[in-house]
Amino acid sequence: TLHTVPAFDRIGEENAFAVLARATVLAQSGKDIINLGIGQPDFRTPDHIVEAAIKALRDGHHGYTPATGLLACREAVARRTLATTGVEVSPENVMILPGGKPTMYAAIVMFGEPGAEIMYPDPGFPIYRSMIEFTGATPVPIPVREENGFAFSAEETLALITPKTRLIILNSPANPTGGVTPKAEIEKLVKGLEKHPDVAILSDEIYDVMTYDGEVHTSLLTFPSIRDRLIVLNGWSKTWAMTGWRMGWSIWPDRLYNLVRKLAVNCWSCVNAPSQYAGIAAIDGPQDDVDKMMRAFDRRRKVVVEGLNALPGVSCITPKGAFYAFPNVSGTGWKAKKLASALLEETGVALIGGPDFGVLGEGYMRLSYANSEENILRALERIEEFLKR
Ligand code: PLP
Recorded E.C. number(s) (predicted)? Predict the structure, then answer.
């Protein structure tokens, strides 16, 4: 018989993909499905980006690139980082990877082993915990609470650090809650982290420019005191509607950069060349389409929050970032996952139960508003009808 190693039994899932699969089956059987489940923009990648990839292919860029990414692409990331954070980073610290997830994987396998503790947000992106468990390290959830606007509490976070803590994962603006941690709280957190120089930090900033109401994201890069142990995850997937291109970047301190480069050499060699040319065009080209997308998200955000708060037993705080709402559904009398699955089966509205994002997700659901205003309104009507039954 085949003997697979136990670590693979500990790998989890991202339930959003399972919900998408079920919704697709229901749609194929003729059911009218409204998908508020999946975490990807419902926009096409802007044309000038697509054209850059086509040109790269026609120009013969068909081979391997350096494992760290094309220098021109890493330079583009450095320019973009300077523009969004005011911080100068060297292209020698920039790594191009096939999406945001490989940075997560690299950082977690670099620090995770039995006996080590890794802290991660709960509710949070499910892959953090899954990969921590894969390494055999102990996952330590950092509570992210509704009464805090789903921001990190510096005090509560710092209190969880022990001598075994190796890595702490932060994410703002956040999936699944849309929470944005205010600058003052991040400053407090960094002050506290300065007392723990042996703890590495992975800051997932993939939604960095996706904020609303004048909210400004504070990058951990702006704190020189922690730069020598800070990994910043970012990428093209969300901002430029490029989830299928598999393009991410991350910024690594000198002493870790060679390790992630070697991992790339062993695992994927490099990101496909035409995608990297597209990535350069995305950063250097006009941002009108990004602005247009964000204005659409902002309008829908208001529609979603207003609609949710009008539902019986449901309340929803206004998310400040990303493109998710995380309503509190505990007043409906339903368990969140049961409600999500009943809504899909009986009304055709796909969304994700909060427990798929951690134990503190019970009582909540995640709605992605990456869908048309019209569909969002139709979905809200169906949910209302269902809850009133
Ligand atoms: N980080 C967060 C917080 C996300 O929500 C996502 C995607 O859903 C990712 C990382 C992964 O992005 P990618 O599709 O580029 O791997």
Answer: 2.6.1.1
